[in-house]
Task: structure prediction
Amino acid sequence: MVYLGSAFRLCALSLSLMLVFVTYSVRAEPSDFPTYSADGSLRAPREFEQWIFVGSNLGLSYNESVATVTPRELKRAETPRFHNVYINRSSYDSFIKNKGFPNGTTLVMEVFEASDRDAKGLLGAGTFNGPHVGLEVAVKNSMRPDGSMTLWAYYDFTDPTNPAKTLNTAKAFPDAACEDCHHLHGQVDNVWVQFYPVLRSPE
Ligand code: HEC
Result:
C-alpha cells in the first residue's frame, strides 16, 4: 500500500513536471511569431508597427532583363510608391546575434502612395507617405501548415476591393510568383538586406 502510494505520487509528480514542460515550451514561442488559420492561411500580423523598422524605399522597380521578374512586379514602375519594411523583434535580435534569420522570421511591407500635396497646401516640395494601399508579408517557416516544403512564403493582405483595408488571412503565392526572385537576388536568405540599413553590415 505504502509502495503503491509513493508510486502514485511519483507518477503525479512526473505528470505535473511534464505539464510544466509542455506549458513552458508552448509559451517559449515568441509572441511575435506567425499564426495560421485551420486551412494553412497566414493571419495578418498585428501591432507590427511596434516591431523593428528596417528601412523604406520609394519607387523601386526592376530591370526587365531580370529573369525572375513577373508582370505583377513590372507594374510597380507605373506608380512609384513607398515601401516601409518591419521585422519581428525576436527574429531581429536573433539576426543581430547569429547573422541569420531564424524560423518564424516575419517581414511586413506596408505600401503607401507617394503624395506631394497636403490638404492645407503648405508643402512646396517633397513626397510623404500618403494613403495606405497595401500590406505584403514574408515568413520563414520550415513546417508550413499549407504543406509546402519551401522555407519562405509570400502573402498579400491587400483587400482587392479597397486597398486601404487589410484582409484577416491570406494564402501563400506559388513560388514562381514571389519566392524565386527573392531567393535568387535577396542578399541574405531571401531577404533584401542590401536595401535595409538596419540589417546590412556597415559599409
Ligand atoms: C522580380 C523580383 C521580385 C518578385 C517577383 C517579388 N519581389 Fe518582393 N521584393 C523585391 C525587392 C527588390 C524587395 C525589396 C525592396 C522593396 O520592394 O521594398 C522586395 C521586398 C519584399 C518584401 C519585404 C521583405 C523582404 O523580403 O525583403 C515583401 C513582404 C515582399 N517583397 C513580398 C512579395 C510578394 C508577396 C511577392 C509575390 C506576389 C513578391 N514580393 C515578388 C523583389 C521581388
